[in-house]
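Researcher: We plan to redesign the surface later, but first we want a full-length starting point. Tokens attached.
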């Protein structure tokens, strides 16, 4: 189990070090689009997990791998969508492709697996889309 995460949550407004994976997951589960809209967790210089939003039960999930090469992914409901959806992140309403705004209840178990293993895996009903720079 990976229990040495560095975490920033806008709900607390401060960065914490040496955070257990289940505490990070608890922060993700509390995203509400109002007072708690961002969780950024990093494990060393290896990976970053960013979960943001929470309004209307939807969040944006990004996963970045830094080794052996930079790779960036976003969790999505399907491959593409012309529709946009708004998420509130740190008080700002930001538009994202609607398929990138995924249900929080589906995200929590996926993030639990990520935080325990540092492996993104292949989730059921959702997929990881590579984000090109």
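Model: Full-length starting sequence:
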């Amino acid at each position: 189990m990976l229990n040495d995460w560095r975490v920033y949550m806008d709900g607390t407004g401060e960065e914490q070090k040496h955070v257990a994976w289940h505490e990070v997951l608890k922060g993700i589960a509390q995203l509400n689009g109002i007072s708690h809209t961002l969780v950024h967790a990093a494990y060393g210089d290896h990976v970053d997990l960013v979960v943001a939003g929470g309004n209307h039960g939807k969040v944006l999930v990004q996963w970045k791998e830094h080794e052996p090469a930079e790779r960036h992914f976003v969790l999505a409901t399907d491959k593409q969508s012309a529709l946009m959806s708004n998420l509130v992140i740190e008080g700002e309403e930001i538009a994202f492709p609607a398929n990138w705004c995924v249900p929080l209840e589906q995200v929590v178990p996926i993030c639990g697996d990520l935080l325990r293993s540092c492996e993104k895996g292949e989730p059921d009903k959702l997929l990881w889309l590579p984000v090109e720079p």
